[in-house]
Structure formats: C-alpha cells, structure tokens
Amino acid sequence: MIVLATGNPYKVAEIEPLLKQAGFRVKLQTDFFKDEVEEDGLSFVENALKKARFASRMTGLPALADDSGLEVDALGGKPGIYSARYAAGANDASGKSSDEENLQKVLVDLGQRPYSQRQARYCCVAVYVEHAEDPMPVIGIGQWHGEILMERRTGQGIGYDDIMWIPKLVKTVSEIPFDVKNKISHRAQAVLSVMEQLGKRTEQ
Asked: So where's the catalytic machinery, residue-wise (predicted)?
C-alpha cells in the first residue's frame, strides 16, 4: 500500500492510475488527515521530499509526493517553485493567487516577446519514501517542453495549461486528451521513473 501525498484532485486523477497500473494499492492522504505541510523548500526536490516524509510520518505507510511548476526561459526560470502563487509573490507562502492571476502575470511579464523567446517547460519531481526517515528516497524527474502563447486558448485549462503550447502536438496542454497527456506529461514522466526504479529494486 502507498499513500499519495496530495489533496489536489487534479494530481490524484493523474497519479493514482499510474500507481495502480504499477500494482500499488493506493490511499489518499486525505483519507488520514487534512493537514498540509508548508512548501518552503528552495527546489522541487526539497518540496516533494518534504511532502512525502510528512505523509509517511502521519500514516506510517510508504508515500509518494510530487512538486511541479512552469519554468520560462525568458523569465529566468520563473515562476518555478512559486508557480502556484506567482501573482501573489514568492514571499506569500499562503498561496493566495488564483490560476487566472498567475497565468495573466506570466503573459504580462513576457509582454510581446516573439515566440523564439517564449520557450518554457513544465517540470515535475516525484519522490517515494519507504518510511518517514528513509535515507534513500527514490526520485523521478520529468520535463515537458513547449512555449508560451501570446494569449490563452480554450479557457478550460488548469494552471498554465491554456497558454502552454506543445509544438509536437500542435495543441495547448488544455487541448490534449487526458489519456494522451497522462502518458507524456512531466508528471507522468516523473512518476513512471519512480515506478521503474522501484521495479529494479525488487529485481535485485
């Protein structure tokens, strides 16, 4: 059994099927507790590890957590680990800015830069711990490259999905069918990497 260390329904929808496909019985951390650990790390790795250890400590079970965000080259890698609260500012740990506010801030900050200067990537780190003090956590990393549009497309996306254009698919992330997205996204890459590493552990 494994605890999925998130209360975000969108993350649950993406990650839970991947864990079940790998043979895990999955419980959500919200089945056990409502508390949220403060994401005050300086990297995706630190935040994901902190969330995984917290969930494992609270439940006594192995746990998997992820941390993810958007990095825009022309903005020096911002919003990065502050993607969920970009409009509020990096110093606002409460995360009180909406998806719409964050998206609009990215568009404003990029201004009218040409598409040659709008490269971006979704980044995700997934971390698995066997127990809260696990000295050898399993870490998976995923990146999904694209570019930021001048304006939003469908109006139906989550986070930055409406402005994140994937050239290879000629679609924004919000326009990609879920079954396709959940095979190639940054989050899928990171989680599948963890599952692959865990599989190799059992083979040894």
From this structure: 67
17 is in an annotated binding site: no
67 is known as an active-site residue = yes
Tell whether 167 is in a known binding site.
no
- Smallest Cα–Cα separation from 93: which of 103, 85, 101, 83? 85
The answer to whether 93 and 41 are in contact (CB under 8 A) is: no
This prediction's pTM: 0.93
Structure tokens at 133: 């003090």
Residue 91 and residue 167 in contact, taking contact as beta carbons nearer than 8 Å: no
The catalytic position among 35, 66, 67, 179 is 67
Q: Which domains does the chain have, with CATH numbers?
A: 2-203 (3.90.950.10)
How many CB atoms neighbour CB 167 within 10 A? 10
> Does 50 appear as a known binding residue?
no
* Residues of the chain predicted below pLDDT 70: 90-95, 203-204
Instruction: Give pLDDT tens digits for 129-150.
Output: 999 999 999 999 999 999 999 9
**Six token digits for residue 198:** 């865990």
The answer to whether the beta carbons of residues 73 and 119 sit under 8 Å apart is: yes
Residue 130 labelled as part of a binding site: no
Identity of residue 190: A
- Tens digit of each residue's pLDDT (9 = 90 or more) over 95-122: 578 999 999 999 999 999 999 999 999 9
